[in-house]
Write a structure and sequence with these properties.
GO molecular function: oxidoreductase activity
Family: Belongs to the tpcK family.
Distance between the termini: 19 Å
CATH topology: Alpha-Beta Plaits
Oligomer: single chain
Strand content: 15-25%
Protein name: EthD domain-containing protein
Number of strands: 6
Organism: Lophiotrema nucula
Low-confidence stretches: none
Number of helices: 5
Radius of gyration: 16 Å
Helix content: 25-40%
Largest sheet: 4 strands, antiparallel
Number of domains: 1
Shape: flat
Length: 130
Amino acid sequence: MSISQDQLVRITILIRKQDSISHEDFHTYWSTSHPKIWLSVPIVREKIVKYSQFHVDHKFKEGMEGKLPFAGYDGGAEMWARSVEDLMSVFTNEEYLKIVMPDEQMFLKREEAVMMVGYDVPRWVDGKDV
């Protein structure tokens, strides 16, 4: 399946925190300080339509250990753009590489991040088939 012109492209990046910081410090920094740095790069505001973070609830995860299989990640970042080219232009941008990457390396393990790129296909919204 190819992406139609009216679909947004989504990238989901699963991330792990640096071992040197606590879960609480990771989630606090990532949710408050990092977005300011990320959004300070002009190409991000130009090319990214939506940016969202998914924070793992570690207390819930620990309480369910052995009952459900959990992925070994601390969170996920999701970004939507109008095209794969727009997404890639952000991640290869000189300012992004100079400003955002060093910040990320302070709190997450970039080398262990995994990505999925594709598009959403809603099937159920607000109690209705779509």
